[in-house]
Amino acid sequence: MSSATTGEEDLRATDREQLEAHGIGVEEAQRQLAILRDPPPKAELIRPAVPGDGIDALPDGPEADRLAEEGRSAARSGRMVRFLPASGA
What we know:
Elements: H1 13-21, H2 26-37, E1 50-51, E2 54-55, H3 62-77
Parallel strand pairs: 1-2
């Protein structure tokens, strides 16, 4: 099987079973594989994001506590699996 092929021949039966177990259709998997094979061009960065221009800073006080709890709740329920700070750390 060539890595340059496209279509269902790229997916073995075990691949299809695993996709199905995760609720991912064969068409969606093929779409994602096509993007990996031929990724879109990289975005041209114009300027860095800074507070007030692309970054919202969390407020101090009760609002920060409420937002933090909302984030913890989202993580517990599986709606959020990772938080990536603007620093990229």
